[in-house]
């Protein structure tokens, strides 16, 4: 479970392309990447990297969720990090995810699965009331993936591997229209609330940029 959805929704980050050689191929039939992706059948995002199929261990579920503590995801983390000793974990969401759009109206049977996402969506929508729905949804996809990455990095098994052997955890989002992934890199700090609030309003604040002016764009949040 995410510790703070308000902080997650106000993350400041850069959106960068994913070079094919971002993770160089080892040329060996041994997994070096744990790839966490969505179950949507049309997603082909693992082709973003120029590595052998055997170099990627793929774990999929509804919405690329890892933070709800289900046994399957916990087992995938333990197996890949402790036994396979993968060098990278990629959490990859995608734009236009129907599962994200329906999270707030999900049947009772899967409400618990989407609890964090539903809370994050409510905060995201409240922060960006003037954006079109498609823009808010793109921003939600980006901050959600980064929140999952932050949660993963805080888990003891992953944190130990990061400290001991340099395990890297990446946040990707797949764009179906471009058949390509982007990577999300946090640049530090938090974005001011555009309409005022405890984290900085129109006149700036502890987390605001110059004069507190923030550009909320589809596909990212950047200071002007």
UniProtKB/TrEMBL annotation:
Entry cofactors: Zn(2+)
EC code(s) of this entry: 4.2.1.1
GO terms, molecular function: carbonate dehydratase activity; zinc ion binding
Catalytic activity: hydrogencarbonate + H(+) = CO2 + H2O
Key word Lipid biosynthesis present: no
InterPro entries the UniProt entry points to: Carbonic_anhydrase (IPR001765), Carbonic_anhydrase_sf (IPR036874)
UniProt: Zn(2+) binding residues: 38, 40, 94, 97
CC per GO annotation: cytoplasm
Enzyme superclass (EC): lyase
Cofactor note: Binds 1 zinc ion per subunit.
Annotated segments matching region Disordered: 195-224
Alphabetical keyword list: Lyase, Metal-binding, Zinc
Single GO BP term: cellular response to carbon dioxide
Pfam families: Pro_CA
Lineage top rank: taxon: Eukaryota
Composition-biased stretches (Gly residues): 197-211
Function as written in the Swiss-Prot or TrEMBL entry: Reversible hydration of carbon dioxide.
Record family assignment: Belongs to the beta-class carbonic anhydrase family.
Protein name: Carbonic anhydrase
Natural source organism: Pseudogymnoascus destructans
Taxonomic classification: Eukaryota, Fungi, Dikarya, Ascomycota, Pezizomycotina
